[in-house]
Amino acid sequence: MSLPLTGRVSIVTGSSRGIGAAIVKRLASQGANVVINYVASAAVAQSIADEINAKGAGKAITVQADVGSLAGNQKLVDAALGQFGRIDSLVLNAGYLEYALLKDVTEQEYAKHFDTNVKGPLFLTQAAAPHLKPGSKVVLFSTSLTHASTIPPNYLLYAATKGAVEQINRVLAKDLGARGINVNTVAPGPIDTDLFRHGKTEQQIAFFESIHPQKRLGQAEEVSNVVQFLVSDEASWINGQTIRVNGGFAV
Questions:
Q1: For residue 175, is it within any domain?
Q2: pLDDT by residue (tens digit) across 106-136?
Q3: CA distance 242 to 250
Q4: CB within 8 Å of 74: residues ≥ 6 apart
Q5: Which end of the chain is more exposed for a tag (fewer CB within 10 A), N or C?
Q6: Helix 18-29 vs helix 42-55: angle between axes, to the nearest 10 degrees?
Q7: Long-range CB pairs of 94-98, under 8 A, 24+ apart, other chains included
Q8: 224 bridge partner residues
């Protein structure tokens, strides 16, 4: 019996670590061929590809590309088509986060946040869209902080970009949805990754654990399971939704 994603091809941005790495492993375990995107960590990305290829379910290639640039996005599309001949899903996971209060926001940090978190997924979707057939899936990434009253004030730029992503999701669901392509957004709460732990003290980590009903952080695999469902045929009637994967952190 074939695996449910056998023969499908997925581009996953920011997939050399954390949630992205868990996603490519999950999709490949279900038979998908995956494009692992990284910016600087070539050896880490290749180790993930080697692990996937050794298991013999889906295949993996690695592509160095800055998804904040149109050239980087086109490079990913060309690599997927050149290696696998098709694109069935985009998982737009790559993200950038630096903390800053309003008084400390700079134009450079504003540009970096919006280039990576908004411009990147928008223009990668644009570049891939002509190659997506009915039944294809686009999965954007937001954060449950767009819905949480506990949002810290130094998440200003990050939250602004994710608010933009959720609005892009709503509109693209109508645009691409007319072609039978589903567009949804996954909005994790605190997930125990390097990105989440960056710049936080152990006391701050403990606080985020304490405000979850289960008194723990989420795991990357708990997000990858949702992504795998959204790119599968079983999610055929889910379109334009923001799905908060947060264990009750924000309800």
A1: yes
A2: 999 999 999 999 999 999 999 999 999 999 9
A3: 13
A4: 127
A5: N
A6: 20
A7: 94/13, 94/14, 94/20, 94/37, 94/67, 94/120, 94/121, 95/14, 95/141, 95/158, 95/195, 96/68, 96/158, 97/155, 97/158, 97/195, 97/198, 98/157, 98/158
A8: none
Residue 4 lies in a domain: no
Beta carbons of 19 and 91 less than 8 angstroms apart: no
Q: 13 is in which domain, residue-wise? A: 9-245
Q: Rounded to the nearest 10 degrees, how much is the dihedral formed by the CA atoms of 94, 160, 162, 208?
A: 90
Distances (CA, A) of 61 to 2, 10, 81: 21, 11, 12
What total number of domains does the chain contain?
1
158 catalytic residue (yes or no): yes
Using pLDDT thresholds of 50, 70 and 90, give the confidence band for residue 196. confident
The runs of H, that is alpha helices, within the chain are 18-29, 42-55, 70-84, 107-114, 120-128, 156-175, 194-197, 202-210, 220-230
Q: Can you tell me the mean pLDDT for 150-163? A: 95
CB atoms within 10 A of CB 235: 18
User: Among candidates 52, 122, 57, which has minimal Cα distance to 92?
Assistant: 122
Q: What is the chain's mean pLDDT, rounded? A: 97
The domain spanning residue 51 has which CATH number?
3.40.50.720
User: Which region holds residue 14: left if phi is over 0, alpha if psi is between -120 and 50, else beta?
Assistant: left
Question: Is residue 168 helix, strand or coil?
Answer: helix
Mean of pLDDT values over 217-228: 98
pLDDT in tens, 28-45: 999 999 999 999 999 999
Query: Does residue 108 form part of some domain?
Result: yes
Q: Pick the catalytic residue from 38, 96, 155, 158.
A: 158
